[in-house]
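User: Could you go from structure to sequence for me? I need the amino acid at each position, not a summary. Structure tokens:
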């Protein structure tokens, strides 16, 4: 079949809207009509050539929602007509990691996914007879895409696609980092570095669990209002304070954060996030994705004296099990999504979504098909 898609032919070049050929689903796979997709900073990072796993040409996009239109042989967990969220962190329920119950990082298809291929080592997309690669196993910047059934979370049918797609990455990543990874306790002081599409979800996750102080840190003053809208109690712009940001936060929080989160992808900020944690117990969670080649550092003394450094992918959520629960939380009003969708665009306008993100003018842009 044919599908309309925004293709990343080369790094650092705008996406091009073209008609691709798409092969139907093979065994264990499903064809999904994508109804809406968010544009996450990770898409921009890959398009900018900063991802060590970036492959071109490819169809980017990993934050979608849509409807199953066809299934391949042997598929049992989804059927045509089901509403689904594609999962860049699948859940096979059989691999060592899934069975361990210690992590959500299912390994069943990770190797081929990282090479832009389906589990059988081929692509379903092609253009003028040449293969086009998949991205994060999702490729939601195409109106139709093919995914393994283990990478599809079946969700309720009354959830609107335009907002629910955000649960495919940003919402689950931010809220999940608080509830699954850090397990923030009521009354704890939380510091969030970077108040974008991910950081604001950390803020609302902290509000949800009843955190005490929720401090937001951002170099863009316009983010203060956004943070307060979702539960932030204090705002710090590191460019507007006298002295060191770490000392400033330690003083503000009476000794340091109980939990801090990096939502910037900047390795210097990751260090600040760790070092502003409370001596003896403060935990810092890295969410941001750093450029290829970048490394983190700190004095080992920071860890010797009890601070903990950890990271999280997709908010520690087990995709097929937990994503439908996040949709329920949204539909029951426990978490908010609608106000964070600042721009709704057509596929033809997708490059504007990247511009708005780089200019700091959007929280989330969503493309509707
Ligand atoms: P975004 O562009 O919407 O937000 C980033 C925010 O960080 C902006 O508000 C910006 O002003 C702020 N910022 C930049 N430099 C800063 C600094 N030095 N100090 C303080 N604030 C600063 O991006 P996003 O969509 O929220 O994504 C944030 C990061 O999370 C990206 O690195 C993205 O790749 C990553 N991410 C990780 C996961 C995961 O599973 N681990 C999932 C989604 C996104
Ligand atoms: N490909 C990069 C790493 C990118 C990365 O860390 N991705 C996150 C999700 S970001 C979503 O917006 C993730 O899930 N990581 C775990 C995994 O298995 O990819 C690199 O450095 O090579
Ligand atoms: Zn993302």
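Assistant: Here is the amino acid at each position, in order:
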């Amino acid at each position: 079949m044919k599908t309309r898609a925004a293709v990343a032919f080369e790094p650092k070049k705008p996406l091009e809207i073209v008609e691709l050929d798409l092969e139907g689903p093979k065994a264990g796979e499903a064809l999904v009509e994508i109804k809406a997709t968010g544009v996450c900073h990770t898409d921009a990072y890959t398009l900018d050539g900063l991802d060590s796993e970036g492959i071109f040409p490819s169809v980017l996009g990993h934050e979608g929602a849509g409807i199953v239109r066809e299934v391949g042989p042997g598929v049992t967990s989804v059927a045509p007509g089901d509403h689904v969220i594609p999962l860049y962190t699948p859940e096979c329920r059989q691999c060592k990691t899934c069975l361990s119950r210690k992590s959500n990082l299912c390994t069943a298809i990770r190797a081929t996914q990282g090479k832009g291929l389906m589990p059988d080592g081929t692509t379903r997309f092609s253009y003028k007879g040449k293969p086009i690669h998949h991205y994060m196993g999702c490729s939601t910047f195409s109106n139709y895409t093919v995914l393994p059934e283990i990478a599809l979370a079946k969700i309720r049918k009354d959830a609107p696609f335009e907002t629910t797609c955000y649960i495919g990455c940003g919402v689950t990543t931010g809220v999940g980092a608080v509830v699954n990874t850090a397990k923030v306790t009521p009354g704890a002081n939380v510091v969030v570095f970077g108040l974008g599409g991910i950081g604001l979800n950390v803020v609302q996750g902290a509000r949800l669990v009843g955190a005490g102080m929720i401090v937001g840190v951002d170099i863009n003053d316009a983010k203060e209002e956004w943070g307060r809208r979702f539960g932030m109690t204090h705002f710090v712009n590191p460019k507007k304070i006298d002295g060191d940001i770490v000392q400033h936060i330690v003083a503000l929080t009476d000794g340091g954060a109980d939990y801090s989160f990096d939502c910037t992808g900047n390795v210097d900020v990751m260090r600040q996030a760790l070092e502003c944690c409370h001596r003896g117990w403060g935990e810092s969670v890295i969410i941001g994705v750093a450029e290829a080649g970048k490394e983190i550092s700190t004095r080992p003394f920071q860890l010797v004296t009890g601070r903990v450094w950890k990271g999280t992918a997709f908010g520690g959520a087990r995709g097929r099990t937990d994503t439908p629960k996040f949709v329920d939380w949204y539909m029951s009003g426990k978490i908010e999504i609608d106000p964070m969708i600042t721009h709704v665009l057509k596929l033809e306008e997708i490059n504007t979504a990247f511009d708005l993100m780089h200019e700091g003018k959007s929280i989330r842009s969503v493309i509707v098909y």
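One structural detail worth keeping in mind: The domain at 173-312 is CATH 3.40.50.720 (Rossmann fold).
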